């Protein structure tokens, strides 16, 4: 078991679940240096291998690029790590079912227990408030810091017209939250169709959210996907 192997698995899992497409990325903070993090070079997540991992400083600049290109939106990661010392992993995705919620007035709410963390609040970042006329990408530390401020102490933030940033105290939590954020968005949309305009939907309440989030670490989910993907990666390298 290694940090890089787990990071490769996180990329592959989120790609297979449709959470990240050719462009999403995942990082982990270095366990032995809180001012550094690791993330894959600019390559489609399904193709990521351990050799693609690059080290970054807190300004999101590569420590030793060796000719490899970092992803444009690496500033999301550095600025979140600066602002949130307890965060050990960051996911940036373009989770398709989540996008409608970042472009409308309908807030995401926790519709089932696996996504209770949504009840802790998922703010929506409006890039126009930081910079008018952008190409929507977080291409520098100024935009990264603006996004990190909007994220605040929450487990995730939406990015209007773009996607989301999801954080966790471990890689498995950030990956689990990303998977269940997408599922929650889909289920909530389905429930709203079923209920119709003005119809009633019962979401988890504050007490239920509080009782769930204290233990929910997505351990069984992570164990399942790790086992599957370790086998796949072994087959690839055979
Ligand atoms: Zn993006």
Automatic annotation (TrEMBL):
Xref: SUPFAM superfamilies: AraD/HMP-PK domain-like
GO CC, any one term: cytoskeleton
Gene3D superfamilies: Class II aldolase/adducin N-terminal domain
Domain annotation Class II aldolase/adducin N-terminal: ranges: 5-189
A molecular function GO annotation: actin filament binding
Pfam families cross-referenced by the UniProt entry: Aldolase_II
Family statement: Belongs to the aldolase class II family.
Designated name of the protein: HCOMODA/2-hydroxy-3-carboxy-muconic semialdehyde decarboxylase
Source species: Noviherbaspirillum humi
Lineage of the species this protein comes from: Bacteria, Pseudomonadati, Pseudomonadota, Betaproteobacteria, Burkholderiales
